[in-house]
Structure formats: structure tokens, C-alpha cells
Amino acid sequence: MTRLGRLLLATFLATSAGGAATPASAQDAPFPVEITVDASRDEGPVRQVWRFFGADEPNYATMKDGRTTLATLGQLAPDQVYFRAHNLLTTGDGTPALKWGSTNVYTEDAQGRPVYDWTIVDRIFDTYRARGVKPYVELGFMPEALSTHPQPYQHDFRPGSGNLRTGWAYPPTSYAKWEELIFQWVRHCIARYGRAEVASWYFETWNEANLPQYYWGGTAEEFFLLHDAAVRGVRRALPDARVGGPDIAGAGDDFMTRFLDHVKRAGTPTDFLSFHAKGQPSFVPGPAGGHVRMGIDKHLKAADHEFALIGADPVFKSRPIVIGESDPEGCAACQGPANAYRNGTMYSSYTAAIFPRLQALAARRQLNLEGVLSWAFEYEDQPYFAGFRQLTSAGIDLPVMNVFKMFAMMKGRVVTSRSDHQLTVERMMADGVRATPDVGSVASADGKRLAILVWHYHDDDLPGPDADVHLQVGGLPAAFRRGATVVQYRVDHDHSNSYTAWLAMGSPIAPDDQQRAALLKAATLAGGAPQQTVQVAKNRAELRFRLPRQGVSLLVLTPG
């Protein structure tokens, strides 16, 4: 097969064949699942670690679908959602491309003196703030006038080809000029947004400097110099700014330990630590055309490796941690058969299953996990459901976005929840979810409101039987003595799923107004059944419901 043929096949698989979460056949009998919730057993505050997102392409934020997607994120938790973007200091006219963006903040005149222009980056941050989103500021990449290897400057990346590491990825010709650029930028942000606002942001240096073939053209020692200079620039402008790093890839190396040793020796302020963790899906050939198999075990192992390195350092063990990119695989802008999980419910159920496990891994090592950042946003003016890793397509929410809406509804205090089909994190790291499915749950209580999230996940994108869930809720407060009103929200093949609706339309390349309106309606977070009232006896209530494979359900109970 020619390269063009392989690319066309990959695109077809990404947009048509995978991720649809085909329902189980009629011959697949459901299997029983017992879930118990004790609303009286407080396990601590809900930590909304999901409130972090990001993208390679900063300029998409100011475009039509980018603004819409940011607005949706901001509405989930106003002024508590953070957005991280590459290329905030990259030279160019602001025209986006895959894995590319620019702001042109720094050039030099004929005498080599700095010229600062904040116009484009202000437009980006203004767009965030107008929609209730705060910057998680990545201090990168290198302006052309400062790069030690400036040419070629813009990379020629395309899905499946191109050289990513070009002039933007190299150390500066002058660390003093680099530090001054950061100082001037932060000082400008204070003048524009206010000191208290900027102090609420996160500031970190660069991206994945431990991957020299991609994001960093210098040595580790040169990165440490870059980081120190950047932090000095931030703190000169704002002494109480929140600074940290190193936002490295979880690559199984010792870079985190080397970074921690360096900042201790150098005395570099470090308010939080950050790294990345990714899964590794594969495409499994088969008689029906093959299917995607997720690699959730790789994701968890990558996170736990970095957790172990941080936990081994008594100086930094208690510092807040942000997993600065946490995704099923490593390239949002890449397409192909193994990435065909993205449009449908494989992505949404994976997301529901992975977040509690990352929190469990951190808790097991007594670490302070403050955030888990999903490197997913949107791709402007691309075909509908083009197979990129994103939250929306053509301005239409994908099923995964609805899981974040569910997360946002879980507030207050964590209460005890147990499922007899929830796999242990140790088993998932060892074997993935390849045999029995993972049907798990978490629950929270917020005043008189109880929220219970249940997921049904499997690594293989194949049909399977429904879970027949028997949910027993105990320890309900006195306010529930007359009964409980239950609202159930669902994300599965038939609910909250714009992709299924698009496939049912015949996968139109350009949906007309009526079709687009139907897709927008299908994309909303939907209830699986009408609101119902259940009896409460001796502070206990029982419910039964079916949960399809790769489905996620949120049940909200209030006094009835």
C-alpha cells in the first residue's frame, strides 16, 4: 500500500470505524454488579483535579470554535479552570497550524535591542479571562531572535511526517535577555489583569525538556539554566507568583530527580511540581476489520514512576503536583487506527476510569495531587469528527466533554463508595483492563445533595454485555426520610453522544443547519430516564439500572 493509501485508511478508521461503542448484541446477557454507598462516611473534600486543560495551538483560543469551547470549560467551574498552551512566546504572525502557534512578543531592532509586542498574547489571555478560565502559563517557546539555532524556525509537522524540532526549540543566545523577556511579560500582565489575579496563575518553563528529539534542542543543564532564569524573571515582577515545573514527559527516566536536586542546590523557588503521563493504545487486527485496544496500564505506570521519584525526596514530597498532560496517548494532532477511540465513548469511559486511579496512586504515596491536565481542546476549521484528540469537533461537544460536566457536578465531600467489579489500581497497572471489565464508582455529598458516578470501562473497543447495577445507598441524612428524587445523567452509545448521531445521519461532510442543530442537541448532557422518586427506609435507598459497556452514569439524589 502506498503512503497516501495508508494515510487515507488511517483517516477513514479514525472518523468512521472506531470509537462508536457498538451496543452489546441481544445474546449478551447482562452481568450483575453490586455498588454500595455510605453517605455518612466522610473521606475528605472533593478535589476537583480535572479542572486543567491545554493545547499546542494557542491561537485557536481566539477563533470561533475555540471561544465556544473555552466558554464551556469556564462554565464548569468559573475562575477555577486553568488552560496551558505551547507557543506563547513563539515568533510569528499568529496564524495557527497543527502543533504550532505564535504571538511575536519578542523581536530585536537593528542594534539587537529587545522590542516587545503583547498584542496577540493579550488577545489570547483576554479570551480566557472573559470566559472564566485562568492561564497555566507555559514560558516557551524560544523567540527567533533569541534562538541559538534560529533556522529553520517554523517546523513542517503534518500527521505522520515532518520535523518537529526546529529553531523554536533551542536555548537562548542570552539567558539575561530571556529572563528580561519573562520579567517584562509578567509585569505587563500585572498591569493588565491585576496583581492578585496574576498571583493566582501557574507559571512553568517549557515542555518535555527530557525529550530532546521533540521539544528541547539543548542539554539538561541548559534547560536548568533556562528554568532558573525564567523563574527569576517571574519572581522579580511578582514575588508571590506561583512557579514550578518541570512539565517533563513521564518517560521512565530520572529527569525528575535531577531537576529536584538542581533546584535544591540552586535555591530556585518551586511551589509545585509537574510532569506528564500518557497511555498507549494499539490497533488489533481482526476478522471484522480490527479494533482499538487502550493502554491504560502504561498511563498509570508513567504517573506512578514520577510519583515515586517525588515521594522519595523529603524536601518536595508535600509540594502540590500537577500532571501537566494526562492523556490516553501522546499526540493530539496525530491521526491513525490506534487513535480511533477519540470521537466516541472509549475516550469518555477511559476518562471516567483514569482520574480516580491517578488520585489513588498519589494518595497511596501520601502525595498532594492538585491537578490533572487533559491535553485536549479543539481543532479549528477541520472536518467534523476528524479523529483528533479534542473536546469538541466543529464547535460540537464530544462525549468526553460530557464526562467533565459530570465531574463538575461532584462537589462537597467524598463519601464511601464500593463496587464489587471495580478493579484495583495495582491490577490495572499490571494487566490493564483486558479480561473482566472495570465497573467502578465514586460518590460525593454536598449538603443535601448526593452525586454518584459509575463507569463501565474495558480496554478493548468491542461489544460486551451491559452491567446490571444494583446500587444500595445507606447513611442518608434525615432530610431524605420522605424519599429521594433521582436524576440520572448518561454518556453512552445512545445518550449525550454527538458522534453516534452523526454516524446515524450517514456521516455528512458538511451538515446542513437542521443536521447541525440535531448534533448540538445530541451533544448535550442527557438524562437516561425521567426523574424518579425512590423510597427511603432506615436511611437506605436502592436503585437498579443498566450501564452499557463504555458507558458512564451520574446519579444525583436530593430529598424527595
Q: What is the count of helical runs?
A: 13
Alpha-beta content class: alpha/beta
Arithmetic mean pLDDT: 94
What is the CATH homologous superfamily assignment of the domain at 47-411? Answer: Glycosidases
The Rg value, from CA coordinates, equals: 24 Å
Question: Which parts are unreliable, with pLDDT below 50 for 5 consecutive residues or more?
Answer: 1-18
CATH class of the domain at 47-411: Alpha Beta
CATH architecture of the domain at 47-411: Alpha-Beta Barrel
CATH topology of the domain at 47-411: TIM Barrel
Distance between the termini: 62 Å
Biggest sheet layout? 10 strands, mixed
Number of strands: 24
Helical fraction? 25-40%
Beta-strand percentage? 25-35%
Broad shape: globular
Polypeptide structure, described:
The protein has 560 residues and is an alpha/beta fold. It has a domain at 47-411: Glycosidases (TIM Barrel). The chain contains 13 helices and 24 strands. The strands form 5 sheets. Strands 1, 16, 17, 18, 19, 20, 21, 22, 23 and 24 form a 10-stranded mixed sheet that branches. Helix 4 runs parallel beside helix 6 and helix 9 crosses helix 10 (399-408). The longest helix is centred in the middle third of the chain and has 20 residues, at 345-364. The radius of gyration is 24 Å and the shape is globular. The relative contact order is 0.15. Keywords: Glycosidase, Hydrolase, Signal. It holds the Pfam family Glyco_hydro_39. Residues 1-26 form the signal peptide. InterPro entries: GH39_cat (IPR049166), Glycosyl_Hydrolase_39 (IPR051923). Residues 34-523 form the Glycosyl hydrolases family 39 N-terminal catalytic domain.
